[in-house]
Amino acid sequence: MATAIILPKLDEAMRTGKIVKWLKKEGDLVKKGEGVVQIETEKVTFEIEAEGSGILGKIMAKEGEELPVGTIIAYIIQPGEKVPEAPVLVATAREAARTQKPVTVPKEEARAKVFEAPTEGRAIKASPLAKRIAREHNIDITSIRGTGPSGRIVREDVLRVMEESKIAVARPTREEVELADEQVASLSSMRKVIARRMTESFQSPHFYLTVEVETQELMKTNKQLVPLIENKIGIRSTITDLLIKMVAKALEDNPSMNCAYFDGSVKFFRRIDIGLVTSVEGGLVVPVIRQANRKSLTEIARARAELVQKAREGKLSMAEMKGSTFTLSNLGMYGIDQFSAILQPPEAAILAVGRIADKAVVREGQIVIRPMMTMTLSIDHRVLDGTIGAQFLKSLKDYIENPALMFYSVLVSP
To answer: CATH number of the domain at 116-184, out of 1.10.10.60, 4.10.320.10, 3.40.50.620, 3.90.700.10?
Structure first.
């Protein structure tokens, strides 16, 4: 029995997915649990794993093609087994929403659900996206020659016809001709989401509070803890781990900061879940360290290392990127002195951290050199005021300049 690999629905907002890369070729052996294809959504890139072992018998979706949730994109078969002759679409998207794993479709049922548009006695094989583009631009899809598997009409075929017939293609202006050496690239799904969320974010009234902190004791504490934690869990802790713990403690001291604007009201969070802005290829993601106030520094270092690695491998789940109550963005490792971060809706605050650098400062009437760091707190003025933000920064500054306040037992697991 052929096993259909279906484009799954990861959350309620997901409508389509883009084929990024096939990890297997037609005819390759596939083992259960092995990654078969990489899919990109608006929020994350993930792998679809094989539900069972067999042979990748047929691929119906090209790399770069965007398809609706529920589309069958490939089949896994057993030796000597045949696959349905045409692409099929799952009966309802609800079936795909139930699971992220492939489902098995009986051959007879698959044949009965061939996604085709009968016209003048024959069936037109076309991807849903190709049909939609053709319909929106009044193109007769029966006149298009398909270049997909088994002659299937795909998105590129419709766009080719549009270009050839000059549909929605304007004559280039003189300025465009003169700038022919420039390249315009479409935004990736991730960048589209970033653009939309940043536009939404700036609809809220931001204001900013900046403070400089001395980091001599912070660096000394980190130096002492690195070998202890590395020996315990095999992970090298960082200044960021200490900052996550200190931010969580400062939020405990100032619970009014741990909030969000919600439909004309303010929502106060009892949990303290810290989002960490992480750079990945093509954009940014924000994995979440849950209950950071209750975790030891050892546990935070482990969680941070695992989440960052998964982020850069494109393996973060939606659950690992949702539900933060406060966000930390650290660009110090890139040599940035100071910056202002944009709020992560619906959160009411985000902390931007710059690099640690030696500066001349005045201590007890004397000019001395100290390692200093600049922090900027961005606040949603609809629910928070400057006084609350200033009190939070003072608590955080105290912990950074005197880590002993956190107690050694709080920072490291016994």
So the answer is: 4.10.320.10
